[in-house]
Amino acid sequence: MGLLSRRRPTPAARPAAAAPPGPSELAGMDFPRPLGAGARQSREPWRLPDEPAISGIAADAVRVGALTVRAASVVGPGHRCAEPAQHRQDAYRIGRDPGRRYLLVAVADGMSDSSRSHLGANVAVTALIGRLRADLGSGAPLDGPALFLDAARQMSGMAHRQKAADNDVRAAALAAAVPVEPAADGRRRVWVSWIADVGAWTRTGSGWTRLVGADKEGPDRDVLSEFLPFHPDRAQTTELTLEEGAVLALVTDGIGDVLADGAAPWFAERWAEPPHIASFVADVGYDARGRLDDRTAVVVWCDR
Q1: What is the pTM of this model?
Q2: I need a labelling partner for 69 at 20 to 30 A (CA). Which of 35, 91, 190, 276 fits?
């Protein structure tokens, strides 16, 4: 296939509470202000798609060994305020391997010009976690292209059952295996495989550094030339070294683009320590003019 565009619109932390806050506590919680000028769509009512919808917000707050995790996926203003609305096209899954040695994370970003990409993204993350669990459980070496080929096959099978085409379920994706406990030197070797612009970032002082994922530059910054289910063989794989106490963020471009374009200090302050899940969801659902895409982040705090 040739190049395909997403056709998207131009694009001090609170510690985790011991128990869910009541209404009075929520009223005083430090929810974020807009990143600069807010988007007009953020003030409009949320609407529904014509067919039954995937939830507009998904979130998790968990502790896995020495890892603290916050995860959220929020439908963007550009999708939720149309009439009819569009589905949340981002998806994530988190899990553990059978031996409970690894936190497993998968994140996917459905392409906006693909009519059932919300289904493709959800099938992709489920398939990626399932294959990671199976390979780690059997002791098989992790193989990025094989992992993404398995996801591509399941996406294609789902499309055909829906009487749709492979072109209707396109998505970018990333999968990672994070050691629950550090090595003797306090470091962790994180296995990551990805395709397209879903990325991994690490918190560095008052900002964030991109570790993996495609940079966006030039007039065609939102054009993708590789994606599932068509190009699983183009999945890239690496191992990242995380220092003791590191913060790792696995994100779709709804978060990655603003990290790259000036919002990194804001998110570095918000996520210096694991926030309450309500605050984290509000952070992921930030308000900024021109930022209308869905956004997803799975953030892992090591040794907190």
Answers
A1: 0.88
A2: 35
